[in-house]
Each structure stands twice: as C-alpha cells, then as structure tokens.
Amino acid sequence: MAVFRVLLASLLISLLVLDFVHADMVTSNDAPKIDCNSRCQEQCSLSSRPNLCHRACGTCCARCNCVAPGTSGNYDKCPCYGSLTTHEGRRKCP
What we know:
Blueprint: H1 2-28, H2 36-43, H3 50-64, H4 79-83
Helix pairs in contact: 2-3
C-alpha cells in the first residue's frame, strides 16, 4: 500500500511539473516575431565578411527572436543570442 502511495505522489508531482513547463513554453512563444533581416543588416553593417555575418545572425535571430543591438557586443540585452556557441565553444552569433 505504501508503494502505491509513493508512485501516485510521484506521478502527481511529475504531472504538475510538466504542466508548469508547458505553460511556460506557451507564454514564451506568444512574443511577436521580429524582422530578422533588417536587424541583421544593422548588426552586420561593419563586418569584414557581411555574408557570413548575416547568415549566422539570421540563424541566431530565428532561434532567439532577438538580436543584440549595435554592431558588436551587447549580448546582455539578448541573453539567448549571446549564449549560442559553435562546436568549438566560440560564440555563434555576431
């Protein structure tokens, strides 16, 4: 009988946690999509390799729905954008 109660309690806690995670995912996806093309044009305007910069920026913008302001740095304004890395551990986003 005690094993049944432990299993039931574990199941209820698991369902509660999943419900909170699902609710968080639903609310975070409600943000309007930004215009990645224009934001990346600004971000890559001073790059020595604009095509490479624009491609990387577009990928990061699509994943994070934000681009760090300015032409370099400012990753604290968009933490997701600043946290993406390549396989070598370098920052993916320009």
